[in-house]
Amino acid sequence: MTFFIVVIRGLLRRPVRTGLTLVGISIGIAAVVALVGISRGFEQSWAAGMKARGTDVVVSNMGSALAPKPFAANVRDRIAKLPGIAATCSIFVDMTSVEDSSMMIISAREWGGFSWQNLKLISGRMPTDAEEPAVVLGQTAAEVLKKKLGDTVQLETKELKVVGIIDGGALVENGSLIISLPLFQEISGNEGKINIIDVRATPGSSEDDVKRLCVAINSVVPEARAMVAGEHVGNSQAYRFISAMSWGTSLLAVIVGVLGVMNTMLMTVFERKQEICILLAIGWKRSRIIRMILWESALLGFFGGIGGVLIGVAGVKIMETLPAIHGLLEPDLSVGLMINSVLIALVVGVISGIYPAWRSSRLTPSLAMQG
Amino acid sequence: MSAAQDDGKTCVFEAVGLTKEYDEGRGQALRGVDFRIHEGEFVAITGPSGCGKTTLLQMLGALDVPGAGTLNYRGESIADLPAPAVYRAREIGIIFQAFHLLPTFTAIENVQLPMFEADLSMSQRKERAAKLLESVGLEGRRDHFPTKLSGGERQRVAIARSLANSPSVLLADEPTGNLDSENAHFILDLIIRIHREQKMTLVLVTHDMTIAQRASRTIQMKDGRIVSDQQL
Ligand SMILES: Nc1ncnc2c1ncn2[C@@H]1O[C@H](COP(=O)(O)OP(=O)(O)O)[C@@H](O)[C@H]1O
Ligand SMILES: [Mg+2]
């Protein structure tokens, strides 16, 4: 018999209680995995979307809403004159419900702008001109809206024909409904307004050049902020809110986990009071008792963490298939996140065991003889 | 004559004016006890319930700290032991009235529990535990949990456990108190046989005079004091 077996026996003496404690930690850790994975994935898929659009700098005014605040379309003229810029593309992005989908990204793009260029047609064609009452759908958006070529999509009061299905090379692009900017401005009553300017730096620009470009743009455009593409999502209040919420929930899950394991370990120490006294009486050092209790709670954390990662990953996979979310979610379930989650659970276990272990070590061996 | 020698016999325990209070001094379990116990002796401690027998045994086993007075083990103060756990693990084997096996461990595992404090490998622990169980006639019950053993068998496992680290002193508190007379006989014979064969010092608490008569010496207590100390 090894010391490890002694520890396992301690956990198995109340299998139901141990099991329930494991379920508790697992659910907490599952929440951590799912929320952190989703919010990180959110950030990364937007960054990937920028890249697919071929953008180096994004000029926008990220307020507290999911979509940025509109500003005058002529802001673009001020930017286009700056040195170090190869091209600009005005965009109006909106997130709104479209037919059966409660949340669809509508990406209205300047006709002829570079952000049309990276869209690969899977089937159909692009609109013939800026005025044609037509849209192209990302492949995921088409799935979500259950549309095929030739169907119409209701946008505000207008019926628009689906003329093309595209592969945009990134989740955000594939989940979008793409439309010409002038047409959308007219439909949505946003004439003369845009809310994003994609900026492409001259080829061969270094990272520092791009950063300097942002500073230059910001000095001429007080109504919006220029940011290196990919960083701008992390700066949006909506993303910060989601991120803060996921970390907050995770923290709560960890606290609940600590209290749950501590409760279980305190119960087991009280219940085994006499056994611990007997072990002390037959010569066990107090440090060995402490180690036994700490190992038990550490193992609870560890196995709870493993269970939590499994439940979290399964939960996210199920969520991805839900029609309401499908196409909007590209969770980042990296190995790093899983290892970190198990480590968090392990630390939760060890921390929870400290007080019960200390209590157990204060028992006196003479109690073994009484009763 | 050194502190640890009497007529050439080694003095294992020496108590002088030993007291023990409980409830923060509101009561006294031991009110000044003096004795010497020598190597290889079989001492029975008798007396009515509540006279302090168990308390005395706890002092000898370093399960609790003594009050006033001195209590030495081979010339060293038990109260000042640098590592009481090591003393309990290596020097003392202890047998309880209620057996006190751990319910989540099998017979052979219970016997191995004290061996974690000795320098033995896992296989050495197992081998030694198997031999000890054999010596108490339980080789066929190695993998049984305590609930599957009779009272007599449980006490035999407990005896094997007390011998785990080859102690030089055996302390037994009413070891037959929870057994029927047949099992009581068997257990008593077993303890006495071990005491003789391994030349261990045996201190046995009992209120049964027929058991006490088999000892080489009987210490009788009353109200926390020794009232008679007879060599037989
Ligand atoms: N922790 C304690 N709290 C209260 N009373 C105690 C405690 N320990 C011992 N006593 C008292 O001390 C006396 C001696 O107890 P004990 O040594 O167990 O007697 P015995 O083993 O001879 O029956 C008894 O009166 C008992 O009630
Ligand atoms: Mg007693």
Report on the structure:
The complex is a heterodimer of chains A (371) and B (232). With 371 residues, chain A is α+β, with helices and mostly antiparallel strands. Chain A is 54% helix and 19% strand. Chain A folds into two domains: 3-44 and 239-365, no CATH class; 55-228, no CATH class. In chain B, 48% of the residues are buried. Chain B starts with a strand and ends with a strand. A six-stranded mixed sheet of chain B has the order 7-8-9-4-10-11. Chain B has helices at 53-60, 84-90, 107-112, 122-135, 151-162, 181-197, 209-212; strands spanning 5-6, 9-22, 27-38, 42-46, 70-73, 76-77, 92-95, 169-173, 201-205, 217-222, 225-231. By secondary structure, chain B is of the alpha/beta class. Classes of the chains: A alpha+beta (371), B alpha/beta (232). Chain A binds chain B through residues 1-3, 5-6, 9-10, 12-13, 274-275, 278-286, 288, 364-366, 368-371, and chain B through 54, 57-58, 61, 63-64, 83, 85-86, 88-90, 92, 94, 96, 98, 100, 102-105, 108-109, 112-114, 116-117, 122, 125-126, 161-162, 164-165, 173. Bound molecules: adenosine-5'-diphosphate (ADP) and magnesium ion.
The sequence of SSEs of chain B as H and E is EEEEHEEHEHHHEHEHEE
Instruction: Kindly report the oligomeric state of this protein.
Output: heterodimer
Q: Can you tell me the residue ranges of chain B where pLDDT is under 50 for at least 5 consecutive residues?
A: none
- Major sheet summary line of chain B: 6 strands, mixed
- Fourth CATH level, the homologous superfamily of chain B: P-loop containing nucleotide triphosphate hydrolases
Protein chain pair with the most extensive contact, residues per chain: A-B, 28 and 36 residues
Structural class of chain B: alpha/beta
Give the end-to-end Cα distance of chain A, rounded to a whole number of Å: 29 Å
Globally, the shape of chain B reads globular
Spatial order of the strands forming the largest sheet of chain B: 7-8-9-4-10-11
The largest sheet of chain A, given as strand count, sense and whether it forms a barrel, is: 10 strands, mixed
